[in-house]
Amino acid sequence: MPKLLIDIIGWCGSLMVILAYGLNSYQRIASDSWTFLLLNFAGGVCLIIYSVYYTAYANTFINVVWVIIALPALVRLMKRYAKR
After folding, report:
1. Could you give the CA distance from residue 22 to residue 39 in angstroms, rounded to a whole number?
2. Strands (DSSP E) along the chain, which ranges?
């Protein structure tokens, strides 16, 4: 992948995670909302791609954990909506 594309993916990931945190901190979205969880999941995936490309494995590790935390929460939310 071209370096510019990787940089764009990294910036988008950073913005998504910050947006999720900011919106939640100012109580604009709930921590169990689709918006919060999807922003964290997608942002984490983008940051994994970015940090693997640049061999920043400490950052890769934290973003893998970030995604692992977000994924079960998304599955739980999907199950809750499926019951309705």
Report:
1. 11
2. none
Backbone CA torsion sign across 11, 12, 13, 16: positive
Structurally, how many domains does the chain consist of?
1
For 22, the 3-state DSSP assignment is: helix
> Is the Cβ–Cβ distance between 47 and 32 less than 8 Å?
no
pTM of the full predicted structure? 0.90
Name the one residue in this structure whose structure tokens are 């939640």: 24
Would you give the end-to-end CA distance of the chain in angstroms? Answer: 42
What amino acid occupies position 26? Y
Summarize pLDDT for 13-63 with one digit per residue, the tens. Answer: 999 999 999 999 999 999 999 999 999 999 999 999 999 999 999 999 999
Residue 16's domain comprises 3-83
CA distance 49 to 53: 6
